[in-house]
UniProtKB/TrEMBL annotation:
The lineage of its organism: Bacteria, Bacillati, Actinomycetota, Actinomycetes, Micrococcales. It comes from Microbacterium hatanonis. Signal peptide: none annotated. This is Gamma carbonic anhydrase family protein. It comes from the Bacteria. InterPro entries: Transf_Hexapept/Carb_Anhydrase (IPR050484), Trimer_LpxA-like_sf (IPR011004).
Amino acid sequence: MEYVHLGRTPRIHPSAVVAPSAVLSGDVEIGPLCQVLHGAVITAEGGPITLGAHVIVMENAVIRATATNPVHIGDHVLIGPMASLSGATVEDEVFLATGTRVFNGARIGTRSEVRINAIVHLRTELPPETVVPISWVAVGDPVQILPPDRHEEIWAAQRELDFPGYVFGLDRETPDLMVQLTERYGRSLARHADDAPA
């Protein structure tokens, strides 16, 4: 289904195929010969989303842009089932495997692979042809690629990236952080109340 969100309507190239159960919302542009499969959600929450040519978005993947972090996906990219990508740039010929997570402000270089359940964290830059192994975490710029059992090293790098500040504009040390975060984010998401089928 296609929805008008914040006055913007999805645009789909005539050669692209979007499954009837996929959701496209707002300022979304689907390029030539793309395939968007069942259950995928591509939602522009105030910023644009562009998919180049020959992009495949598999079942139940989620792609979300924000006003601060638009999404650009280059040509010949495969986004696997249940992958999640928020506010990031993905260059050409990238493989994002099943269950991968890519966070706001990240950039994934040409011909990189993010393997099953791996994470590319906030504001992390993967140089071209980088591989993030299964379930590992890429964090920082310059990037560190760490196994999940090295939590203290991941957290040390992640803390400096300031997720609540960068994404929500809130200080991590705020005593009622989750109260403020959910109320602020909830008000932003409530803008969907005025969405209408395209």
